TrEMBL record:
SUPFAM superfamilies found in the cross-reference section: CheY-like
Classification via InterPro entries: CheY-like_superfamily (IPR011006), CusR-like (IPR006291), OmpR/PhoB-type_DNA-bd (IPR001867), Sig_transdc_resp-reg_receiver (IPR001789), WalR-like (IPR039420), WH-like_DNA-bd_sf (IPR036388)
Organism: Caballeronia sordidicola (Burkholderia sordidicola)
Domain of life assignment: Bacteria
Protein name: DNA-binding heavy metal response regulator
Domain OmpR/PhoB-type: 123-221
Amino acid sequence: MTILVIEDDRKTGDYLKKGLTESGYQVDLIRNGADGLHQALAHPYELIVLDVMLPGLDGWQIMQALRAKRDLPVIFLTARDHVRDRIHGLELGADDYLVKPFSFTELVLRIRTLLRRGVIRESDVFQVADLHVDVLRRRVTRQGTDIALTNKEFALLHLFCKRQGEALSRTLIASEVWDMNFDSDTNVVDVAIKRLRAKLDQPFDIKLIHTVRSIGYSFGASGDSH
């Protein structure tokens, strides 16, 4: 497994290269942004550990340029610990964000998790017909109109967006959204669907939530709702 570390702090960079090499990885260390981006695009690395504050190109610029050309796991490792920085890094396409000072053991565990998972990442933004869902900002709009949802309604919509076109049973929905086993005497799913439809579908021509007879519900821009 080959890892690229882009880190300008000499002590941190050397520590990372030594520790990751001893953990069984082949490690290349680059100490500035421009060379780091060139190296990342020129070689088939399995994962990149990326600092934000770098000479030349910063980590944000590297991430943006990298995602336009390649899809591989990236962990930001940085002293920038504001929530807005974390959100920005994840919005740019990073898979993880670890703040300095950091635990080397935690870093290795996160690297192993990402390498097992591969490059398949869950989308942060969904567009279904005229519906726009921004998961990170928890913002939902249709035709440019903001739609306010409760936490459970948002979780339900997020599930629908991830499973577009699938017939989802009430049991599955209850398990995923409420973390509960579905009881046939409980109508919590149907009530939540009714409330979500009132906000998401009723004011608009295109209906997105569809009842699948004898099964449950499906979500998408086509299909017959009942």
